[in-house]
């Protein structure tokens, strides 16, 4: 079955599955067509300024009050929320991991969520968490929504299908999806095993960064974002709905599928984006812009230019700068940097950072090219070079990222990561040329 999408970022969309199921000219008619219930989903306060005011009107078989009963506690001990501090003994450091292992037991997308870092405070609606998901089983009659934040999903292995109350998003590695706070969904696996990264954004919604002097084009262009058309199922079987709410989980049992929205309109909706459509802008003559030039989406913090989260990618691109050390420079940062690699090789590391892996360079901790990478880039013939077959990304936040016990004790953590800089030699010998022997 092919699912269809509507192009644009933050548009006021409208979509219906049955002719005439979407009311025209009003939001809440006395009797909506087909006996549907009209319901508003508010993603911003009613009174938010127009530019950030987000809501959608959903026309559904049953209203959402029928999609919850009495709640019982549920437990997902590896999905942590901020603040989550001091639950392990690992000392401060720059850290790197090989991929999180695939599960041996049957595991769905929610049970397969493993938190690596948390930052900020879920109750204060600031900060984020960085997770890895691993799964080998579809959700069939299980559904989920997250009241704590929106979910940015970055697949690394395997295709999956997000069956949401507002439509279906099919997603494969190389694409990303954003599911807004509160949206009900289940996750079906297209491939037998899947793995990927998730940024859970507790704060203001992700949006497109301003381009400044770049102008009206390049980076992520709005038309390349795709929001699903309405889709529903009429399924009268025992179902469960699990909710993540202020860091805890609760489950309720209902007698039908909550994915029953026949038509909807509005600007609060899930979307996906193909990272291959990102048009990178960079140095044309010399030097190296800050990696913010590769920001796909940014979540503002309320303080200008200081993001709660920046989602940054390192896509295929030409390197042409003259008399320039071309890889990312050595760096200490007030922002903290969680990196992943979707495929290929990252240009600051010759080895050790593999697809599915993670690196964490936290608040003010030094990082940069490894010793072989520095040697190679310092002696390279600076012809134009195409950096190809690569897609790394970064979840960057203004808050320090606190490592979870799961991340600290994960067997794939590389105990020798710090050694990648051990062979950087002293080149200073008092002469202008330095010692390059
Ligand atoms: Fe950095």
Automatic annotation (TrEMBL):
<feature type="domain" description="Homogentisate 1,2-dioxygenase N-terminal">
    <location>
        <begin position="5"/>
        <end position="275"/>
    </location>
</feature>
<dbReference type="Pfam" id="PF04209">
    <property type="entry name" value="HgmA_C"/>
</dbReference>
<dbReference type="InterPro" id="IPR005708">
    <property type="entry name" value="Homogentis_dOase"/>
</dbReference>
<keyword id="KW-0828">Tyrosine catabolism</keyword>
<keyword id="KW-0585">Phenylalanine catabolism</keyword>
<dbReference type="InterPro" id="IPR046451">
    <property type="entry name" value="HgmA_C"/>
</dbReference>
<comment type="similarity">
    <text>Belongs to the homogentisate dioxygenase family.</text>
</comment>
<keyword id="KW-0479">Metal-binding</keyword>
<keyword id="KW-0560">Oxidoreductase</keyword>
<dbReference type="InterPro" id="IPR046452">
    <property type="entry name" value="HgmA_N"/>
</dbReference>
<comment type="pathway">
    <text>Amino-acid degradation; L-phenylalanine degradation; acetoacetate and fumarate from L-phenylalanine: step 4/6.</text>
</comment>
<feature type="binding site">
    <location>
        <position position="367"/>
    </location>
    <ligand>
        <name>homogentisate</name>
    </ligand>
</feature>
<dbReference type="GO" id="GO:0004411">
    <property type="term" value="F:homogentisate 1,2-dioxygenase activity"/>
</dbReference>
<keyword id="KW-0223">Dioxygenase</keyword>
<feature type="active site" description="Proton acceptor">
    <location>
        <position position="288"/>
    </location>
</feature>
<dbReference type="InterPro" id="IPR014710">
    <property type="entry name" value="RmlC-like_jellyroll"/>
</dbReference>
<protein>
    <recommendedName>
        <fullName>Homogentisate 1,2-dioxygenase</fullName>
        <ecNumber>1.13.11.5</ecNumber>
    </recommendedName>
</protein>
<comment type="function">
    <text>Involved in the catabolism of homogentisate (2,5-dihydroxyphenylacetate or 2,5-OH-PhAc), a central intermediate in the degradation of phenylalanine and tyrosine. Catalyzes the oxidative ring cleavage of the aromatic ring of homogentisate to yield maleylacetoacetate.</text>
</comment>
<feature type="domain" description="Homogentisate 1,2-dioxygenase C-terminal">
    <location>
        <begin position="277"/>
        <end position="428"/>
    </location>
</feature>
<dbReference type="Pfam" id="PF20510">
    <property type="entry name" value="HgmA_N"/>
</dbReference>
<dbReference type="InterPro" id="IPR022950">
    <property type="entry name" value="Homogentis_dOase_bac"/>
</dbReference>
<comment type="subunit">
    <text>Hexamer; dimer of trimers.</text>
</comment>
<dbReference type="InterPro" id="IPR011051">
    <property type="entry name" value="RmlC_Cupin_sf"/>
</dbReference>
<keyword id="KW-0408">Iron</keyword>
